[in-house]
Design brief:
Helix content: over 70%
Structural class: mainly alpha
Largest sheet: none
Distance between the termini: 48 Å
Number of strands: 0
Radius of gyration: 21 Å
Mean pLDDT: 86
Order of helices and strands: HHHHHHHHHHHHHHHHHHHH
Number of helices: 20
Shape: globular
Strand content: under 5%
Low-confidence stretches: 356-367
């Protein structure tokens, strides 16, 4: 294919695109400034996890321990079991061994994921990237070694494979999810089952969600009672979440599920400690909650908060599953934010579809 450089250089760029490009350049410059002024000093102090609400300090310590051959019992004990949520960030830290290289790798993964989603769905690139960067979790994921940026890549591969009917890529996405965060892999598998012919209620999405909640309501206290009790002891300091966890442990998850999801997505908005005892963790999660509120409002105004959308349905299934955690884990819900961004960025007014074959829309219900 011949590329005419004169046409490329003379190609006009719209005013809107120019503004978006300028804002994107400003954002990248801002992140590099934060990286050198804040991230690098925090790495020297060993306070990156506290300063940026990530677990980077733990991953870097583990990688350094392996690289130096210390044979730290805690590190080895933390890594020698499966499934394991520390493998991928520790592996990245071990291989790259440079905070700057990690940041550049994060940017590369971000660009790859966005490009893949743009090719898979008719979305407005500016809207999608803008909404994605609105959440400070995205920024901290670009700055430091973490699992969230890998979640973005995993979901982009999964959604692309699902839309293009590529089983090979679908298996790759599931394998990466299992290695990075097994909870994400479970969410994907449950979604695939809900959308498949194995589910006799696949066209009755509200009913499928109700049955999923009912199954979890009885299965988790019975099958994982010891694990749940141990995690409950770790979470007893919490106020509202403790009461909700008590309901879950006593077969009342169907009552607790919506408040637990809301606590993860909006729990810091009414928290007075954000202003009384401010910290970077509280600020980051406070603005994380604001970004969720804005994104939900955008989708509500566009009349897209409906289970007819596969993105919304996917997010609803995932929220029901992830909300079982007995501690507040807003970062575990980051994939929900990605799905909401995709729905809001859809160019067409019709609901999005990830299914290989169309679904009979009249039989679906509105959320």
């Amino acid at each position: 294919m011949n590329l005419d450089s004169s046409k490329l250089l003379s190609r006009r760029i719209s005013f809107k695109s120019a503004i978006l490009l300028f804002l994107l350049i400003c954002y990248v410059a801002f992140t590099f400034a934060v990286f050198f002024e804040s991230v690098v000093p925090s790495l020297d102090r060993g306070t990156t996890s506290e300063d940026f609400a990530v677990d980077s300090t733990v991953y870097i310590y583990m990688a350094d321990s392996l690289r130096e051959g210390r044979n730290d019992p805690w590190v080895l004990g933390s890594l020698l079991f499966f499934p394991n949520t520390t493998w991928t960030p520790v592996f990245i830290s071990l291989i790259l061994h440079s905070a700057l290289l990690v940041m550049l790798a994060n940017y590369a993964m971000f660009i790859f994921a966005v490009t893949l989603l743009k090719r898979a769905f008719p979305i407005s690139l500016g809207t999608f990237v803008g909404l994605l960067l609105l959440n400070p979790t995205t920024t901290t994921s670009l700055l430091c070694v973490n699992k969230e940026i890998i979640d973005l890549v995993v979901f982009s591969i999964f959604l692309y494979a699902r839309g293009k009917r590529n089983r090979g890529l679908l298996l790759i996405a599931l394998a990466l999810a299992l290695m990075n965060r097994y909870e994400t892999c479970i969410v994907m598998i449950v979604f695939l089952f809900a959308m498949s012919r194995l589910n006799p209620l696949r066209e009755k999405r509200w009913m499928t969600l109700f049955l999923l909640v009912g199954l979890l309501n009885f299965a988790m206290p019975l099958l994982g009672s010891q694990v749940l009790e141990k995690r409950f002891e770790e979470a007893e300091y919490a106020g509202v979440i403790r009461a909700l966890d008590m309901l879950q442990l006593h077969y009342l998850y169907f009552i607790a599920v919506i408040p637990k999801v809301a606590d993860n997505l909006f729990g810091q908005l009414p928290n007075p400690q954000v202003w009384k005892s401010p910290s970077s963790w509280l600020y980051i999660n406070f603005f994380n909650n604001i970004s969720y509120a804005i994104l939900l409002l955008v989708n509500l105004m566009k009349r897209r908060l409906t289970l007819r959308s596969d993105f919304i349905y996917f997010g609803a299934i995932g929220s029901v599953l992830i909300a079982q955690s007995l501690v507040v884990q807003p970062r575990y819900f980051y994939f929900v934010y990605i799905l909401l961004c995709l729905e809001a960025a859809q160019k067409k007014s019709r609901s999005s579809s990830l299914a290989p074959s169309p679904i009979r829309q009249p039989e679906l219900q509105h959320a």
